[in-house]
Amino acid sequence: MRGDDHGMSGLPDGSASRVVLVGTHRYESFDDLPSVRANLTGLRDVFTDARLWGLPDEHCAVVEQPVNARQVLDQVRRSAERATDTLIVYFAGHGFTDDRTNDLCLALPDSEPGLEYTMLPFDAIRRRVLDHGSRARRKVVILDCCFSARALQGWMGSVADQSSIEGSCVLTASSETRMALAPPGEKYTAFTGELINVLETGVPGGPSLLDMETVYQQVRWALEAKSRPIPQQRNRNAGGQIPPVINTAASLAPRPAPPVPFVHTVSLLITDVANAPRRPEAEAAIAAYVRATPHSLHDPLFLMPIEDVFVVTGRGVVVTGRVERGQIGVGMPVDLVGGLGAHRTTITGVEMFRKTSNTASMGENVGLSLGGVKRAEVEPGMVVTAQNSVMTRTHFQADIYLLPTAKGGRQGEIFNHHQATLRLRTANITATMANFSVLSPGESTTATITLTRPTAIDLSQRFTILDNNTPIGAGQITGIIG
């Protein structure tokens, strides 16, 4: 099957593509993960299935129970050098963080707790994938391990100036502070099980080729509906448009959406949650709608957290960040919301990797030019959002979780009215956590959070708990107060 030479949208040419599947299911010093072995077989079957892609067997390398880091890196290097169309690298197993650098480390069969030098640093894989000897124009990295979103740190910046790389996508099973899940009794791990299901069964009414953005959304919604760890994704140069397989369900009618409008249902939850009990019927309607919607652009409420702010001659104030949801275009009116208040403005320009564009969609890293905005009115941590769609708050309820000490968490308990720094999207804000007695590392509880400054927040939004700028836990907003 030949790929499209004119962009990311064509099915990869199997003769010019390579897949590397790496997994460790049996360990000397950690709990075994039997489902990882099934993950490798399941993904190999998907990629070599003629109905889905038809990758030649010899182009799909499986590295099961690697004896050392070199075995993995040599295979990634060989595949990267031979692929001229698409390179896919997958890892499943235990993941840990380096205590000194906070970098992601992948556990091998003989790795030992606390000894990072016995593990495989993800950065070594990243370098092999992005090395100048790698000729693939499309690159996908998929990680199914704890704290896997730490792989996203620095990924895009390291390749920003390599013009020969047309697109890349990194998909992870969990956030940088969350563990991945291998449910007992299930054939696959939680994340890879949903990934295989989406690739095999397709998306009714979706695109003819399943691109990585559509795959990500379907996997995310399926995991959210089961209250399982939420995957993360980062794209570069339209990497979200890379299609790994054919959508076998494209010709089927999409599942009907529920009669309750999505935006209205969300507003009911946000408005009532502070003064009323949880509303199972509304939450069920949201979950049903999400599962029935085949593509991210069905969410009209644009939002982009601001990572940096610049003043560019001839363009004025430019903010950069990753589009969290929805779509934006030149000329669209938006709100700037956050610690410096709320301001109305209009998008006067969109730029992605030094190229101008008329629109930007969910998952893309962009620079947005803002009309009529002064530099003093905007700062990192604020959000650019569809008008009237987000409000700032200082009080909310949340489920919070502390990392175990062995996984990089703090040494002791925290108590009622504990002060910490919360990472809410791109904003670091001091907060007080109250209405609980004591919380030990490895445990979770419900708390009332008070922020020191108003911040744009959403119901169900996730955040990171920091101690001296080091992640020690995570949380999810369950109720908005006031």
Q: Tags for this entry?
A:
single chain; 482 residues; alpha+beta; Rossmann fold; Elongation Factor Tu (Ef-tu), domain 3; 4 domains; 8-stranded antiparallel beta sheet; 6-stranded mixed beta sheet; 29 strands; 33% strand; globular; disordered N terminus
Summarize this structure briefly:
The chain has 482 residues and is an alpha+beta fold. The chain is built from eight helices and 29 strands.
CATH class of the largest domain: Alpha Beta
Average pLDDT number: 83
CATH topology of the largest domain: Rossmann fold
Q: Report the sheet with the most strands, covering strand number, pairing sense and barrel closure.
A: 8 strands, antiparallel
Strand content: 25-35%
**What is the terminal-to-terminal distance?**
56 Å
> How many strands?
29
Find the structural class using helix and strand composition.
alpha+beta
Number of domains: 4
Number of helices in the DSSP assignment = 8
Second CATH tier, the architecture of the largest domain = 3-Layer(aba) Sandwich
Q: Give me the Rg, rounded.
A: 22 Å
Detail the poorly predicted runs.
1-6, 155-165, 256-299
